[in-house]
Amino acid sequence: MTLKRFTWTRIAASSLAIGALALAGCSAPGQQGAAAPTGDGADACAAFEGKTVELVIPYSPGGGYDTLARTVLPGLENALGAKVVPINKPGAGGLLAINELSKATPDGSQIAIVNGTGAASAILAEAEGPTFDFDGLSYVGRIAIDDPVVATATSGDFKTWDDVLASDGFTFGSTGRGSSDYILAQTLIEVFDLKNAEVVTGFGGQSETELALIQANVDAIAGPLDSRRASIESGESHAVLAFADEAPAESPDAATLSELDLTDEQTAILDGIKLITEFGRPLVAPPGMDEGTLGCLQDALAAAVEDPEVVEMAEKAKLGIDFLSGEDMKDEVVPTLQELPQSVIDILKASY
Where in the chain is the domain with CATH 3.40.190.10? Predict the structure, then answer.
């Protein structure tokens, strides 16, 4: 499977060329007024000029998704020639806003960043919450992936993944059932048969969970590296296991899944969970959007992640960008998720 994706190391070499092409396609002068952008090609892109596009963020201000959305926002404005307004709509673990978006008019006036890992897990587990399925969204493109790690307190007893494997009564902190940190923790407990391990829930957010880790109320957090990076860089925690092929630069001694001696069954489950996390943090739009309008939004996001202002903001915030086109999300990633083995689905269902 060949996917059109790139990270910052590839962005630097191609930003001027791709950015110029996308800007040429999406910033043509258009008529002013209340009419929504419709049609194909240049006409659809021209219709965005001077309009307002709502960028819905399904969480409260200040979190990782909020920061990422506001980071790409200037690039979207530059590419579309439109005013992009961030709208925070928290609720139902990030699903409330996406449920509403899936029923909105597909005219390009509203897009959203989505917790792809959480949404995909809920859909696959047939959990209560989402009123949409994979076909109930239009895919603009992925901005980032989650790159999960298991982080433990630097002052604690668990310095390596081997320490965790040898533990008895190990505890993971989580915001609640169905959250990505719960799903990852539950997966690790089952796959590695961690003795008497459990997931402790009830924390109000990532900051509370991290405080519980530092105060030794839990032994670890399993979640996105971006959410752990500040704590790791401050020396309060470190990663002992990374789902990525390489250990993060902030914790170079962390074990990686690729170097562990795993059975075929363990590999199948962990690979499946990793695929779900690679659904990542995409921008989506309502279903049924015409090809011209959706194509313009897709081109605009491709240009936005290479916009110099966005690049600078992302580097300052230490945000990892891993772009994937909306077409590849729909044609390659979604079908792969729909073919995950039953062993993965069973873990997801047990996490709700």
Answer: 148-275
Amino acid at 194: L
Rounded to whole angstroms, the Cα distance separating 192 from 339 reads 23
What is the third-level CATH fold of 5-145+278-350?
Answer: D-Maltodextrin-Binding Protein; domain 2 (3.40.190)
List, by residue range, all CATH 3.40.190.150 domains of the chain: 5-145+278-350
pLDDT tens readout for residues 184-219: 999 999 999 999 999 999 888 888 999 999 999 999
Q: Which fold has domain 148-275?
A: D-Maltodextrin-Binding Protein; domain 2 (3.40.190)
**pTM: predicted TM-score of the whole model, two decimal places:** 0.83
